[in-house]
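FORM 12-B: Structure-to-Sequence Request
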């Protein structure tokens, strides 16, 4: 398998109110680390002996157990960086879907902020194909604990400490308020249009 290349998000530097260049650069470096580990895991999976896979310990088994950490660490960061940058506003179609699911756009925002405040980890606004509605999902440790099946991610917000400690220290509520005002709605609308769920 060819190596996966990290994407360049330097265009965000200086463009996200409330996130300094130092904060964003440190975060880009961490993302690059997940990409490196994902490539390392995939390379080793290409040659490792699969005949003795085992729950307690085995090299193949351990690589498979760690693969989602590096995979989600890579692609959740890409979703997050791609939906930052103060662009556009929620589209009429997505607004309608959010209102059908949460009662109002404001209720969705209140729930998203509560989700971000609830634990370290990710808050993902998703389209849930099991229940045909928009939901907020809290993904906690290791980038995959709490991840539901059969959902499409519309918006990803990172609430791990490394996402805000340089700029905010322990003032997480300030980060939460700022980051939810810094979304790139054009990107989020495009994801929703791409999955094109049935209208309610
Ligand atoms: Fe992060």
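FORM 12-B RESPONSE
SEQUENCE OUT:
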């Amino acid at each position: 398998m060819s190596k996966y290349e990290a994407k360049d998000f330097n265009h965000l530097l200086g463009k996200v109110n409330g996130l300094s260049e130092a904060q964003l650069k440190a975060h880009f470096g961490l993302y690059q680390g997940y990409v490196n580990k994902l490539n390392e895991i995939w390379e080793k999976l290409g040659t490792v002996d699969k005949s003795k896979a085992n729950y307690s310990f085995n090299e193949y088994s351990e690589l498979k157990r760690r693969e989602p950490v590096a995979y989600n660490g890579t692609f959740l960061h890409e979703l997050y960086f791609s939906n930052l940058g103060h662009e556009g506003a929620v589209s009429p179609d997505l607004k309608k879907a959010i209102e059908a699911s949460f009662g109002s756009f404001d209720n969705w925002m209140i729930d998203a902020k509560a989700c971000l405040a609830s634990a370290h980890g990710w808050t993902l606004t998703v389209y849930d194909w099991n229940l045909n509605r928009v939901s907020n999902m809290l993904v906690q440790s290791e980038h995959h604990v709490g991840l539901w099946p059969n959902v499409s991610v519309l918006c990803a917000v990172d609430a791990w400490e490394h996402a805000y400690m340089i700029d905010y220290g322990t003032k997480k509520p300030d980060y939460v308020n700022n980051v939810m005002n810094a979304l790139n709605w054009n990107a989020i609308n495009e994801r929703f249009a791409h999955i094109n769920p049935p209208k309610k």
